[in-house]
Model the fold of this input.
Amino acid sequence: MSTVTEALERGVFLDGAVQPVEGDTLTILNPGTGELVGHVTAASASHVDAAVRSAQQAFGSWSPLGYAQRGRVLHNCAE
Done:
């Protein structure tokens, strides 16, 4: 199990990249320890709509990928 040494700060993930967003943030705590994990932006309805459109566009190229290929993509995103 790894320990987060630096809290994560994120915007919203759209079209393959994290987009900074102004507005309220939500604090994410580890429920087991109460330690700070990070802060995330509270997305608006328009951000959610944009994310859904982006996901729909990506579905055609994502759906035929096998689990190993998907795993590599997700691993690269985490870095």
Notes: Helices lie at 45-62, 67-78. The chain has a mean pLDDT of 83. The longest strand covers residues 36-41.
